[in-house]
């Protein structure tokens, strides 16, 4: 199933995130990833929500989001016409090093963070699908902990 | 000019055109009530028995007058008691501004006495809400709250103000009276598509709802229907928008709708929906409901389009504006076969004329005669249940905003508070609350408010000693296993009325019922009329939940009989 990505421009104010996310939960829609931060305009924040749900459900949520007073803009990204990226931090199991893995051919930025207490933390940035591939490549059995940022997205047209 | 937050709140509410506020004081909202004390000549405060009653009163006031309902309550239980009332207004798109006060900011988040997070609690049942953080924003917030409540699809807005903000002093910045935001305009293309669909349709039907009255589009609807000669049916919310005896009007559609309306919708190839939202009570089985039909869906709320039924021709606009444009462009097409089919259905499926059986009083007959007695100007409020459906089926409405009922949320206990609001907002007009013995017990303490304020309300208690609608479902769908619906109350409604300081009456002889109602109309203040009815009188026809007009049950005995 292809993800639906909803990108919202909202008032940068307490309580707004609750109003946005409850519209998903109320319709039994699980939020796969969620990112929030302020934009270049400090009074506005960008919320990006990724869901794997039927188009019918997503379209209804899209319409409901447009009705919220604090939501200035909602864009729904599906299939094409946009770029999406996310960051992941992966702490490898004890004794493992980045060099133990072969990442040849992966269209992704990977870097080893300076070691602390002997642990090896890998940072990577790329499209969500590629991040998932990277995690699969490293393998569940080799990962101690990981944290994904959730995806951010922008449309390609001006 | 320096003012406290409380004074600013009261001034701003007055500036936004408020003449009446319903409410109940308490610790956190003391400053606002203190400020109200100085403004009694400009704004009337109606003290209710319970905050829920205040919210329903503000709702009834708004529905019957078209103005914004305003309600005040204190923090904690004061605020939570509003919840059912706000939700009722939300489901039926009623403009309301609820003002609650919270504990002082220093105490928020400490589980302080009477502290509750009403903003989060109310999130799913308001158009918007505010937790005020700065006294300087207050007058702007109040203006914006009225604007939001009244713009587009109407609904409730809540403003929660911490008590310390109501005490802070600042320069008051006066705000102009709100104006509604501009409604979306129709595109040439969508109008053309609608006109084309109207031209080619062979069997069109109009299905309308509350949006018609809320956007004052009743005349526009009639002009549209008359010019194009399209039969109309109504959701419960739409009742009283068009005159009951209009030749194109088929009555209520849906679960307890007339067979004529449901047959027409079933047979139609084009449904023109105006200000309605295809509730499950209207559609039943949604897939079967929409089979072989085109839908023109005219609504101001874009999120209603294709929410329940896929509308191939959406018209997102104000109902009056949209209907005017359609009427101007569309042409009358002769459809003799369809019109004679409609007329034959109307004749064949006329609602049965209720008769007394000699011993007991027929609720439907009382409601039919109530129509004749109280006049077309009277406002009829109801609670929820069988009595509500009897009113919806049998009362003859002629004027918009004369039917006041909780349709979407189906709030038992709505009626008494709502009737108070109607009476306060419409002095000089007769208000009748038709209620049931179950519903009335839920909020009958609001009768005290009608007494204190000498409100001319006749309360007709349809008393059958059961929770009738649930009892009816248990009979039809649960093998007559009457779990918790035989209520066995011993309430004496005449004494109850007298104890509250109202007049009490009881109908004992069906032949004298009309006379008794006429006597009650002459009484100053509220009159409670106990109306003992037989629980065997059930609401028919009924479309069982999830079914269609084909599965209509017409009478108790002849279940599933297909008469056509």
Structure characteristics:
heterodimer, A: 158 residues, five-stranded antiparallel sheet, four-stranded antiparallel sheet, 39% strand, B: alpha/beta, six-stranded parallel sheet, 24 helices, globular
Explain what the structure shows.
The complex is a heterodimer of chains A (158) and B (564). Chain A has 158 residues and is α+β, with helices and mostly antiparallel strands. In chain A, 22% of the residues lie in helices and 39% in strands. Chain A has helices at residues 16-26, 55-67, 128-138, and strands at residues 4-11, 31-38, 44-51, 71-77, 82-92, 109-112, 121-126, 143-148, 152-155. Chain A is elongated and about 50 Å long. Chain A starts with a strand and ends with a strand. The mean pLDDT of chain A is 94. With 564 residues, chain B is of the alpha/beta class. Chain B is 38% helix and 16% strand. Chain B has 24 helices and 20 strands. A six-stranded parallel β-sheet of chain B has the order 3-2-4-5-7-6, with helices on both faces. Chain B has a six-stranded parallel β-sheet with strand order 11-10-9-12-13-14, sandwiched between helices. A six-stranded parallel β-sheet of chain B has the order 16-15-17-18-20-19, with helices on both faces. In chain B, helix 3 (51-65) packs parallel to helix 5, helix 3 packs across helix 19 (414-425) and helix 11 (218-228) packs parallel to helix 15 (319-329). Chain B starts with a strand and ends in a 32-residue tail after the last strand. The A-B interface holds A 14-15, 18-19, 22, 26, 59-60, 63-64, 66-70 and B 119-120, 123-124, 127-128, 131, 148, 301-303, 305-307.
List the topology elements.
The complex is a heterodimer of chains A (158) and B (564).
Chain A: E1 4-11, H1 16-26, E2 31-38, E3 44-51, H2 55-67, E4 71-77, E5 82-92, E6 109-112, E7 121-126, H3 128-138, E8 143-148, E9 152-155
Antiparallel strand pairs in A: 1-3, 1-4, 2-3, 5-7, 5-8, 5-9, 6-7
Chain B: E1 2-4, H1 5-15, E2 20-23, H2 30-37, E3 44-47, H3 51-65, E4 69-73, H4 77-80, H5 83-91, E5 96-102, H6 118-122, E6 128-131, H7 138-150, E7 156-162, H8 163-167, E8 169-171, H9 188-200, E9 204-208, H10 211-214, H11 218-228, E10 232-234, E11 249-252, H12 259-267, E12 270-274, H13 280-283, H14 286-289, E13 294-299, E14 313-316, H15 319-329, H16 336-348, H17 363-374, E15 379-382, H18 386-394, E16 403-404, H19 414-425, E17 431-436, H20 437-443, H21 447-452, E18 457-463, H22 468-477, H23 493-500, E19 503-506, H24 513-522, E20 527-532
Parallel strand pairs in B: 2-3, 2-4, 4-5, 5-7, 6-7, 9-10, 9-12, 10-11, 12-13, 13-14, 15-16, 15-17, 17-18, 18-20, 19-20
Antiparallel strand pairs in B: 1-8
Helix pairs in contact in B: 1-2, 1-7, 3-5, 3-19, 11-15, 12-16, 17-18, 17-24
